[in-house]
Specification:
It contains 19 helices and no strands. It has helices at residues 2-14, 32-35, 45-67, 73-88, 100-146, 149-173, 176-204, 210-231, 243-248, 251-260, 268-274, 278-289, 295-310, 316-321, 323-340, 344-358, 363-391, 393-419, 426-442. The longest helix has 47 residues, at 100-146.
Length: 446
C-alpha cells in the first residue's frame, strides 16, 4: 500500500515539474512484477487523439495532393491554355501579302507549338510535387533532430497553408506560375510529413501496437487519395469555376493539425534520447498511456540510449565502406527503388488520361473509373495489413512486384489492341489498371 501511495504521489509530482522520475524500491512483501507491470494498456484516448492529429495533418496531406490533380486535369489544362494565349496576344490570321494558305499553315503550327508548351507546363505541375518531396525528404532527419517530431509537424503546416493559398488563388491571379510554386511547396510539405509523421507514430506507440499504428499512415494515404478523387468530380469541386477550391482545400488538414497537435505530447523517445530530458519523457509516456506504470518502457528506451552512446558515430562514407552494413544498405536501396520505379506514380497521376486515351472512355466515365481504382487501393491496403502478419513482408513484396510485372504486360497488349480498333480490349485496359493497383497495394505499397 505504501508503494502504491508513493507511485500516485510521483505521478502528481511529474505533472508540475521536470525533475528526474522517482524509482520505487522493491518491497520484500510485494513481488517486483506487481510493482512494475508492463505498459500494455492498449489504445488510450490520448494515444488515439495523437494518432488522428498526426495522420490528418501529415498522411492525409501527402495522399490528398497525389490524387487531387488527376480528375480536374482537362479543365486546368484548358485554363492554362487560355492564360498562355492571352499573354501572347492576338495572332495575325493573314500574312502581309494576303496569302491565306500560308496564314493557315502558320496558325496550325502555332497551335501545335502551344499544345506542346502547355503539355510541358502540365508535366511540370505534376512532377514538381515529387521534386518538392525529395527536397523535404532529405531534410527530414535534420529538422526532427533539431526541432523534435512534434514541432517539425507543426511548423510544416505553414508550408501547407502557403501552398494551398497559392494554388487556390492561381486562377484569380491568372498565373499558372503560382500553381507550379504551390505544388512545389506542398511537395516539400509532403516530403517532410512522410518522414516525420510515421516516425512520431512509431515512437508514441506501445511496442505491441507499433506495427498496427504504423500501418495507419499508409491507410490514411490511400483514403486521402480516394477523397481527393471524389472531390475532384465536376459535380463537386472539379468544375470550371470550382477547381481552385479543391486545390486550396489542402489548407484544412494543416489548420486541423495546428489546432490539435499542441495538445499532444512530444515523442518520449526524442525527449529521452535526443534531449536527455528524462522527467519530460516520463510525463509524456504517462499522458499517452494514462497510467504511471511506465517504468518498463523507460528502461527499454534507456537501454537503447546506452547502446547508441556506446556505438561509434558513422558518417556517410562508413555506410558505403563497412562490410557489415553493405547488405542492409543494398536491401534498403532496392526496396525503395522497386517501389518508386514501379510505375504507380504514373497510374495515380495519369489514370484518368489512361482511361480516356487508352480505353477510349469519355471524361466522365474515366473519372468514375479513377474513383473505382481509388476504392480498390483502400480495400487492398486494409487486406494487406492482415496478410502481412501471415505471409510476411518479403513474400508479399515479391508477389506484388511479380503481379505488377504481369499486369504491365497485360496492359500493354490491351492498349495495342485498342489502337488497332479492337474496342472490346478497352475493358482489358480497365482491368489491367485495377490489377496493377491491387498488386502494388499488396506488395510494395504495404
Amino acid at each position: 500500500m505504501d508503494n502504491k501511495k508513493e507511485r500516485e504521489e510521483e505521478a502528481e509530482r511529474l505533472q508540475d515539474t521536470d525533475a528526474p522520475p522517482y524509482r520505487p524500491t522493491v518491497s520484500v512483501l510485494e513481488p517486483e512484477s506487481s510493482q512494475r507491470s508492463p505498459s500494455r494498456k492498449g489504445l488510450t484516448s490520448n494515444l488515439i487523439f495523437a494518432v488522428i492529429s498526426c495522420t490528418v495533418g501529415s498522411s492525409f496531406q501527402f495522399g490528398y495532393n497525389i490524387g487531387v490533380i488527376n480528375a480536374p486535369r482537362t479543365i486546368i489544362i484548358e485554363w492554362m491554355t487560355e492564360v498562355y494565349k492571352n499573354r501572347q496576344g492576338p495572332s495575325e490570321t493573314l500574312s502581309p501579302l494576303g496569302n491565306s494558305s500560308n496564314a493557315t499553315g502558320s496558325a496550325a503550327a502555332e497551335e501545335e507549338a502551344t499544345k506542346a508548351y502547355i503539355k510541358l507546363l502540365w508535366s511540370i505541375v505534376v512532377g514538381i510535387f515529387c521534386v518538392g518531396g525529395m527536397m523535404g525528404g532529405v531534410t527530414t532527419a535534420y529538422w526532427v533532430d533539431k526541432l523534435g517530431r512534434k514541432r517539425t509537424l507543426l511548423w510544416n503546416n505553414i508550408l501547407g497553408i502557403v501552398a494551398g493559398a497559392l494554388m487556390g488563388l492561381s486562377k484569380l491571379a491568372k498565373s499558372y506560375e503560382m500553381l507550379i510554386i504551390g505544388r512545389l511547396i506542398i511537395g516539400i510539405n509532403a516530403g517532410l510529413s512522410s518522414g516525420a509523421g510515421p516516425m512520431y507514430l512509431t515512437e508514441i506507440s506501445p511496442l505491441h501496437l507499433r506495427g498496427a499504428i504504423g500501418s495507419v499512415h499508409q491507410l490514411v494515404v490511400t483514403i486521402s487519395i480516394l477523397v481527393s478523387q471524389v472531390l475532384g468530380l465536376p459535380a463537386i469541386l472539379g468544375g470550371e469555376t470550382s477547381w481552385p477550391f479543391v486545390l486550396a482545400l489542402t489548407i484544412a488538414p494543416a489548420i486541423y493539425q495546428l489546432a490539435t497537435m499542441p495538445f499532444c505530447p512530444e515523442s518520449p523517445k526524442f525527449l529521452l534520447i535526443n534531449r536527455q530530458q528524462e522527467g519530460k519523457a516520463q510525463k509524456a509516456l504517462i499522458k499517452l498511456r494514462k497510467t504511471s506504470e511506465v517504468y518498463d518502457e523507460m528502461d527499454q528506451m534507456k537501454t537503447e540510449n546506452q547502446q547508441l552512446l556506446s556505438e561509434p558515430k558513422m558518417g556517410f562514407k562508413s555506410l558505403l565502406t563497412d562490410p557489415a552494413l553493405r547488405m542492409p544498405i543494398i536491401i534498403t536501396i532496392m526496396m525503395m527503388l522497386s517501389q518508386q520505379l514501379s510505375g504507380i506514380n504514373a497510374v495515380m497521376y495519369y489514370s484518368t488520361l489512361i482511361f480516356e486515351d487508352g480505353a477510349k472512355m469519355t471524361h466522365e466515365n474515366a473519372v468514375l473509373a479513377t474513383i473505382g481504382m481509388g476504392c480498390i487501393n483502400v480495400v487492398m491496403t486494409v487486406i494487406s495489413v492482415v496478410l502481412v502478419e501471415k505471409a510476411g513482408r518479403r513474400t508479399l513484396h515479391l508477389a506484388g512486384l511479380g503481379g505488377m510485372w504481369a499486369t504491365t504486360i497485360f496492359l500493354t497488349i490491351s492498349l495495342v489492341l485498342v489502337e488497332n480498333s479492337y474496342q472490346w480490349a478497352a475493358w482489358m485496359c480497365i482491368i489491367g489498371v485495377f490489377l496493377f493497383v491491387i498488386s502494388f497495394a499488396t506488395g510494395p505499397g504495404e
